[in-house]
Amino acid sequence: MSMIRSVIRGCGGYLPERIMTNDDLAEMVDTSDDWIIERTGIRTRHIAADGELTSDIGVASARQALERSEMDATDIDLIILATSTPDQTFPATAVSIQAELGITHGAAFDMQAVCSGFVFALATADNFLKSGQYQRALVIGAETFSRILDWEDRGTCVLFGDGGGAVVLEAQKLNGVATDRGILASQLRSDGRYRDKLFVDGGPSSTGTVGHLRMHGREVFRHAVTNISEVIVDTLKGTGYTADDVDWFVPHQANRRILEGTARRIGLSSEKIVMTVENHANTSAASIPLALNTAFEDGRLQDGHLVLMEAMGGGFTWGAVLARW
Ligand code: UT7
Predict the structure, then answer these.
(1) By the 8 A CB rule, do 297 and 274 touch?
(2) Domain that holds residue 53
(3) Most informative mutation of 39, 42, 160 for ligand 1 (most atoms within 8 A of CB)
(4) Does residue 157 have an active-site annotation?
(5) Do residue 225 and residue 304 come from a single domain?
(6) Which residue from 27, 239, 302, 311 has the fewest beta carbons nearer than 10 Å?
(7) Known catalytic residue at 252
(8) Domain count of the chain?
């Protein structure tokens, strides 16, 4: 039976010009290139310039995704921006992006699920498109985590970077079979009992300040592989596919050890992992669309490929999306 699918028409990405190396960080805090590489796989990260905002990064990513989709901005009637580093407390940064792109119809809003934000935004947009309420969506992940880091805390400041990525989704009536293009399945999870494991120690209603990122890294690590593996199994269930059928595993890029551990646990060969953590570090909600963009630009990601995306982040929140490119 035919059904509406959210087909990915194109992707884009943007990284700020400034690159910060592990050696640069070793001049700021008591750390070393060796420690960071061994524990995380990270070598470099990009840092937004003074005055460069999350909305600027989002707009640059969106423009590239629109161009590659051969669409005008005005074709878009839904914008969902996944971010934890909005330009302001309100309005939503998505409306700044909407205005910059010259769009005056449809809806634009932010989604807050920290590092899982892009997966949450993609699943949300998919449901709006499948319901028939909107036709074409821009789903963006954009972050300036450098602005919420405590640059004296070596346990966190070495892990994150800035950047953005975007995809354009279009509602298309397809056959309703697993060989269709577009988003085939998604699963989202949250468990607020763990909200104090990864958080920002400020906010408008609590301290009246922006605050800094705090993390119990080892505890996040402990939950990551199990939670992610379980949600991947649930996402694949019902599609008729197994991990063997997946062409590209495009995970949230938190830590090389988590990505490799998850791939091993679900039985996916390591050559199928799109890994960008080495050059981008953890860009939170931007890391999956940036990784998609990397695999698209270097020619790995081709039409018809089966792509498995997953993420886990503060909350805890976690989820996975299976899509055919
Ligand atoms: O995207 C959201 C999800 N976030 C994550 O998935 C992050 C998950 N967690 C991790 O990736 C890891 O836990 C970290 C990379 C954050 C830390 O690695 P770890 O192997 O869990 O190290 P640890 O926190 O247990 O610390 C080990 C040691 C400690 O020293 P002592 O107490 O053993 O003397 C830390 O003080 O490493 C020390 N340490 C550092 N040393 C050099 C912590 N940060 C650093 C650093 N450089 N930057």
Answers:
(1) no
(2) 3-174
(3) 39
(4) no
(5) yes
(6) 27
(7) yes
(8) 2
Residue closest to 289 by CA, chosen among 307, 271, 267, 269: 307
Single residue among 114, 145, 174 that ends a domain in this structure? 174
Same domain membership, residue 154 and residue 189: no
Q: Where are the alpha helices (DSSP H) in the chain?
A: 22-26, 33-40, 54-68, 93-100, 117-131, 154-157, 217-236, 256-266, 277-280, 287-297
Token digits of residue 146: 């450098």
For a mutational test of ligand 1's pocket, the pick from 115, 255, 290, i.e. the residue with the most ligand atoms closer than 8 A to its C-beta, is: 255
Residue type, 179: T
Q: Of 139, 174, 209, at which residue does a domain stop?
A: 174
Sign of CA dihedral 203, 188, 10, 125: negative
- The pTM of the full predicted model, rounded to 2 decimals, is 0.98
Output the ligand 1 site: residues, CB below 6 A: 31, 35, 39-40, 115, 154-155, 158-159, 198, 217-218, 220-221, 224, 254-255, 258, 282, 313
99 and 199 co-located in one domain? no
Instruction: Check if the beta carbon of residue 84 is closer than 8 Å to that of residue 114.
Output: yes
* Shared-domain flag, residues 268 and 315: yes
What is the pLDDT averaged over residues 34-62? 98
Q: Which residues contact 139 (CB under 8 A, 6 or more apart)?
A: 80, 82, 118, 121, 122, 125, 166, 167, 168, 169, 289
First to last CA, the chain: 21
Is residue 195 domain-shared with residue 170, that is, in the same domain?
no
Give, using CA atoms, the residue closest to atom 38 of ligand 1.
155
Bridge partners, 77 (sequence order): none
Report CA(318)–ligand 1 centroid distance (Å): 21
pLDDT exceeding 90 applies to what percent of the chain? 99
Say if residue 1's pLDDT is above 90. Answer: no
Domain identity same for 20 and 152 = yes
pLDDT band (50, 70, 90) for residue 238: confident
| pLDDT average, residue stretch 157-183 | 97
> What does the mean pLDDT of the chain come to?
97
Ligand 1 centroid–CA 149 distance in Å is 15
Active site residue 305: no
Beta bridge partners of residue 162, listed in sequence order: 144
